[in-house]
Amino acid sequence: MKLSELQGKEIINMYDGCRLGIIGESELILDSNSGDVESIIIPNQGGLLSVFSEEKYLIIPWQAVKKVGTEVIIVDLENDLQPQRASM
């Protein structure tokens, strides 16, 4: 699969059915040697108050990706997963 084919796909958590974000609004971390995707980093989808707070990111390891469909990417993340700060 080409990286461009991921563009615009919505990321859905199969654990709770939550929409996590869209590829294109997120960053992909690639292995510099193999070119494989290591993780997806999605910016926090907070409300108006998030403008004044420290920006946080949800880091999704590529191993959590269960299925890449024509319109969505299904991931399996546990309920207690919290947004994490990413050093970017």
From TrEMBL:
A UniProt-annotated Pfam family: PRC
Instruction: Give residue ranges for domain PRC-barrel.
Output: 2-78
UniProt-listed NCBIfam families: spore_YlmC_YmxH
State the name under which the record lists this protein.
Answer: Sporulation protein, YlmC/YmxH family
Q: Which organism is it from?
A: Selenihalanaerobacter shriftii
